[in-house]
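Worked example 4.2. Below are the chains of a multi-component assembly; read each line carefully before continuing.
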Amino acid sequence: MNATLHQPVIEIDKLVTHYGTTEILHGIDLEVHEGEIMIIMGGSGSGKSTLLRYLLGLGIPTSGSIRLLGQDITRCDADAMYQLRRNMGVAFQGGALLSSLSVVENVMLPLREHTKLDEKTMRIMARMKLEVVNLGGYEDMMPAELSGGMIKRAALARAIVMDPKLLFFDEPSAGLDPVVAAELDELILRLRDAMGMTIVVVTHELDSAFKIADRITVLDRGHILITDTVTALRASDNERIQSLLNRTPSKERLEADAYMDRLTAG
Amino acid sequence: MTEASTSWPAKAHSGVEQLGRLSVRTVEELGYTGALLIESLYWIIIGPFKRQPISVPAVFAQMMSIGIAAAPIIFILSFAIGVMLAIQGIHSLKTFGAESQVVVGIALSVTREFGPLITGILVAGRSGSALAARIATMQVSQEVDALRVMGINPVRYLVAPALLAMLVMVPTLTFLADLAGLFGGAVYTSVELGLSYTAYLDRSLAALSVNDLSQGLVKSGVFATIIALVGVSNGFQVSGGAEGVGRVTTRAVVLSISYIVIADMIFTYFLNR
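Applying the procedure described above to all two chains together yields the following structure tokens:
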């Protein structure tokens, strides 16, 4: 697939963010093209979850810009953001289904918010999406009655109910058994092929990442190490990338004095 | 380094620093709560014009859990307060041989003070805590984030209905508490002094003015705002998982009861000038 033919739908430019006084992301540049599956990968503490939060417009960055579908979400007003949200779907790591609503009510929520369809039409549309994620027949259950994999699929159904142009998926396979995780990977590929969505997946699962990725971005301590295809990533000679791929523990080099200071500090 | 940090100036310094941090935090929280109030009112008033109205079923659901479900316990507690006031009133007025004046005392103190106060404290404990825990849990499980990315403003979806329901139900419950308190007083005086219910009612109505009742109801509106806002602002500011939910819930109840008592004092002072 030739990515240069496509318009970038996500453009991140020199993104710097802070948590309290600690700088988390140190100037991130990233472009995602239309119809692409981009995997954001990295170990814990690499800043990948933070990057996702800012991509979703859930935080105000210190500097830099994030353009989604041509709209700079760090500067646009609430109404523009509201319009943009119709074209964005998000499946959170823990599902984040509203626990007071049944599965189908949860899936209908974006329709209720953004459309003026009548109740019956919304219910049918929600059921269709539940069928897509193989949850037909579970519509009247409450989120608390579902298993982990079912919650993730229900969350995915809710994310795609508006047929968004952009789909964000946080840790699709975390905490799932390999079979269910593989099913979710298939589902993500199918969604891209059938609906032409641009999909951003944040994960630390290598197998799943290699299976579905068009391109992979590796984040490490708030920096992007590489953004490239799976083959290029595998061929990379960067030490930290290789240690991530081969699951070798990172050996942090520390001066003896600095180490002593750290132990005796305070 | 370690010696210096325990020396006297350093201790005083850290004390001042803590005081400073506490003040900053208090002002910050006050501002945050105020912003929540303004935003809720914005959605209640402007929302329908922007085709983003607050959900009426949500308001009614909240009204059910805040109001209707609390009615029996409010009735019982207020009745008990009425009886207590009658006992104490008769006991202390006996000194002056003016036991029959107890009716006036009960009527005024229940409608002006005890009705609103007992309702406020009970609703804070019952519904303020539930509100804080619900929002905190939603915050922890990313449900609030999910609402935001769906374009559903959490203040409009969660805060405004709760505030509206509180503003309707707390004064309503207060009115119920007034009636129950007066009834409690009537039952005890009829037993103790042999005063008939009609006579009690007549003398209560003669003693009461509209101002007495409305004073109580105005205060209950203020309490409703305090309970709703303290509950939700603590809920949103949760950090640290399940333990955090427990912590903010406790904090919400303690703070709203404290604010209610303090606000009661302030309002009573100004309303009686």
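Take a moment to check your reading of the output against the notes. Chain A has one domain: 3-249. The longest strand of chain A covers residues 8-19.
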